[in-house]
Amino acid sequence: MQKKKQNNKNVPNLRFKGFEGEWERKKLGEIGEVITGSTPPTNDESFYDGEYLFVSPADIQSDRFIYRTKTTLTEKGFKKGRKIRKGSLLFVCIGSTIGKIAQAAIDCITNQQINSVVPIGNNDDFVFSLLEFHSAKIKMLSTEQAVPIINKTTFLNYEVLAPLLEEQEKIASFLFIIDERIQTQNKIIAQLQTLMQGFSEQLFKQQILFKDENGNDFPAWKEKVLREIIKISSGLSQDQNNSNGYKVTRIETISNGIINIDKVGFVDTDLDISEYKITKGDVLFSNINSVSHIGKTAIAKDDLELYHGMNLLRLRSLRSISPLFLFYALNTSKQRNHFRSICNQAVNQASINQTELGKIKIMLPSIPEQQKINRLLSSIDKKIETEKKILQQYENQKRYLLQNMFI
Questions:
Q1: Alpha-carbon 261 to chain mean position
Q2: What span, in angstroms and rounded, lies between the C-alpha atoms of 319 and 233?
Q3: Across the chain, how many H-helices and E-strands are there?
Q4: Alpha helices in 75-220 (DSSP H)
Q5: What are 91-103's pLDDT values in tens digits?
Q6: Separation of alpha carbons 58 and 387, rounded Å
Q7: Please, what is the end-to-end C-alpha distance for the chain in angstroms?
Q8: How far apart are CA 141 and CA 94, in angstroms?
Q9: With bands split at pLDDT 50, 70 and 90, how would you rate the model's confidence at 349?
């Protein structure tokens, strides 16, 4: 592969040796047949719960290939829809996930929110990468209304640049290797997260018990009310802006289960706000959010130049509980489900107030046993973090290649 300065705009920055000449401008409708999906009648049960895939936008997640779907069709239902062959590209053109892309691992049909490109005379895998490269621009073509939509004619007429088939195949096979590495890395992370969840559930149900340094049982766990073992605080209630003043937390700061210093607000004030400073061991708790995100937490692993803002509670451990144990205890599926069951639900959001949170009971082992539990779970956490960094490197590599191998 070589990188050299090009004299015209129809040649990519990076190119495999042996390929010359400009790429040809084509419309998506010339790259392949574009098929808009449809939904078999939902009032006829004979169409559903079979062995054939029926793809909706909800089925398009992080995996490139669609192997399974939440809804399946019988042979009768499959024949009712518009068949998409294996290798076709699926592009969401309606709804909140507009612009998402996947590839059919087997023959399937899709619903009406998806436009499928069935390549004709072009390499399937190359067209997948081509759509990835152009997805953000295509997404911008959606009409502004309650439900965003990309008109099929607009989609058909969107112009791209593509080389001859032989060069397409060379590019596709190279990028496919990167995609395989990304998919493998995602699976490694998912397996570690499952392991983490399994160990956590067993530990907090006391199905796994540690021994002390002398091989003896630790003291029995004791039931504690949260308000007795932690201090619960509300955040700084001042208007936030996007650039000036002190960095303060907002709901988005912990959206991925970590404290993301890039997703913060700012408060411009002359007041002393030192009492709101985030210090090592502080746990941030999402108490105002959609129901599915209620109870989401993140822990400060170091002292931060960051202050506690609105719509999150700060939980600070007292002497009988370690901060890390508190963090792990709040993240069991049992506790997360409990938070959802006791929250006050409104139209667009739910909430848990400090009083209700303080009443929650947890089982608490001795500090030495807490420390053993922390070491086990944090070792898996660190492995997950390492694998996520490797995934980020692969994703950055792919982003660079897309930006330089396509036009």
A1: 18
A2: 17
A3: 10, 23
A4: 75-80, 124-139, 152-157, 165-204
A5: 999 998 999 999 9
A6: 26
A7: 16
A8: 11
A9: confident
If DSSP codes are grouped into helix, strand and coil, which group holds residue 263? coil
Q: How many CB atoms lie within 10 A of CB 133?
A: 18
pTM: 0.85
Closest CA to 145 of 84, 192, 111, 96: 96
Which neighbouring-strand residues pair with 363? 223
Q: Report whether 69 contacts 56 (CB < 8 A).
A: yes
Check which CATH number belongs to the domain holding 298 and give it.
3.90.220.20
Query: Residues 115-144: what's their mean pLDDT?
Result: 95
CB 254 within 8 A of CB 264: no
Q: Do 350 and 382 belong to one domain?
A: no
Cα angle 85-87-93, degrees, rounded to a multiple of 5: 85
pLDDT at 4 > cutoff 90: no
Neighbouring residues of 73: CB distance < 8 A, sequence distance ≥ 6: 40, 47, 48, 50, 52, 53, 54, 80, 81, 109
The secondary element (H helix, E strand) that includes residue 401 is: helix 367-405
Q: Is residue 105 part of a domain?
A: yes
Number of domains into which the chain is organized = 3
Domain presence at residue 217:
no
Q: By residue range, what is the domain housing residue 195?
A: 164-212+366-407
Q: Are residues 305 and 275 in the same domain?
A: yes
Q: Are residues 321 and 370 in the same domain?
A: no
Answer whether 278's CB lies under 8 Å from 309's CB. no
Pairing mode, if any, of strands 361-364 and 222-225?
Answer: antiparallel
CB contact at 8 A, 222 and 369: no
Question: How does pLDDT run across 160-177, given as a tens digit for each residue?
Answer: 999 999 999 999 999 999
Indicate whether 253 and 327 sit together in one domain: yes
Same domain, 168 and 301: no
| Structure confidence at residue 146 as a pLDDT band (50, 70, 90) | confident
| Mean pLDDT of all residues in 256-269 | 92
Closest CA to 358 of 234, 225, 233: 225
Residue 1 confidence class, pLDDT cut points 50, 70, 90: low
Q: pLDDT-based confidence at 348, cuts 50/70/90?
A: confident
- Residue 96: burial class (beta carbons within 10 Å; 0-12, 13-18, 19+): exposed
Q: Assess if residue 291 is contained within a domain.
A: yes
